[in-house]
Amino acid sequence: MTRRTPRILVTGTTRGIGLACAHALARSGAAVLVHGREDAALAHAVAAELPGGGHEALVFD
Of 11, 23, 60, 12, which Cα lies nearest the Cα of 40? Predict the structure, then answer.
């Protein structure tokens, strides 16, 4: 049986508690879907700075 990497959507990940949660989940081995409402560049920057890999940025309201 192969182990699959969990993919977790965290809303509000461009700052504050959401950002802290995204970092904690990434350190634990999850692929994080970074959510931002307006600033696409910031959401992509957050996804790129998270440890590990497989993170994506999603921007929607």
Answer: 60
